[in-house]
Amino acid sequence: MQAMTKPFLTVLKDQTSQRVPFWLMRQAGRYLPEYRDLRAQAGGFLDMVYNPAFACEVTLQPLRRFGMDAAILFSDILVIPHALGQGLTFEVGEGPRLPPIRDENGLKELNLDKIDTVLNPVYETVAKIREELKAEGFDQTALIGFAGAPWTVATYMVEGSGSKEFLHVKGWAYRDPAGFQKLIDIVTETTIHYLSRQAESGAEALQLFDSWAGVLDEKQFARWVIAPTKKIIAALKRIHPDIPIIGFPRGAGFLYERYARETGVDALGLDQTVPLAQATALQKICPVQGNLDPACLLSGGPEMEARITEILTALSDGPFIFNLGHGVIKDTPVVHVERLARIIEAFKR
Ligand code: CP3
Predict the structure, then answer these.
(1) Measuring from atom 32 of ligand 1, which residue has the nearest CA?
(2) What is the CATH number of the domain that holds 248?
(3) Which of 68, 77, 97, 289 most suits a substitution to test ligand 1, by most atoms within 8 Å of the C-beta?
(4) Which of 4, 63, 147, 230 is most buried, by CB atoms within 10 Å?
(5) Closest C-alpha among 207, 188, 83, 200 to residue 145
(6) What confidence tier does 70 reach under pLDDT thresholds 50, 70, 90?
């Protein structure tokens, strides 16, 4: 007997599945006590990311509790600058720190030749997760590989940390677009290679996180978000024609439609600011994924339950994957996530 296609992958092929599949961005992480325990054992965050046994284990933790339809590789978007030779540290409670690259001269620090010496453990993790999903009987669960999109990765490389205004990276892009293009090209090439290796290692779908797509004007969005994303997708489709790719241009607002039409993505991740009427319109172009406000999940109660049902009701007639509009917040009570999982499972169209 032929195995049934996993519901998450069915939806990515633009078909509706019998039930609505779900997973949550940042489903592995600090809101889970078992994650905090393992992180304490591993030492630092990057020690976890580059250790296939640890990374595989934390990937599976949320599935054992909540039964998501997809696992997401445990890694980080900033392994790309790290593999290119830019220093990277995660200070507890502070987020990432990198020695910033502020102009074309700074690109000399980057080296494309040795990325796999850093990234090999990540590919090993991907293969290990596939084995472990099988061993633990998760045969309806798909594995998502991912990378940051070039614009978002570049914001961290240039700012050197998280940012509110992005003045260094925008400044470079406006002042010297040809020089900034070289940085975007380096990240684009590296990302194509990195995602292609994840697909070879067993990832069944890929997601491109463009967390800071929403801070650009239309013209800059076309150049730094749409163009590199299109290039990555075209290259990946040449190597792996069947792998579905989800694009998540967080905060893109009115530009979501243009992104969906021009990049070649198979599906769109929607943040919580996208109105359900716009989500339904976008769903006519391609499958959509989203978009519960993570703060609503944090808060819980009847408001959360009502919102989950509203989203399901609005979007479940078309190809739809339930998710949050951004990552799970670290103080989110585990019981709220349990409740969310039960509501989605019980939902009937
Ligand atoms: O469960 C999953 O979603 C898979 C793993 C994953 C992580 N980061 C683990 C992580 C994924 C898909 C990411 C993506 C990521 N990383 C993004 C894009 C999505 C988004 O959130 O916008 C970005 C911008 C990053 C960069 C990054 N990594 C920041 C800004 C931070 C610090 C903020 C924070 O929450 O601490 C990280 C650290 C990080 N990445 C943690 C985890 C579980 C927390 C590390 C810890 O254990 O202390």
Answers:
(1) 95
(2) 3.20.20.210
(3) 77
(4) 147
(5) 207
(6) very high
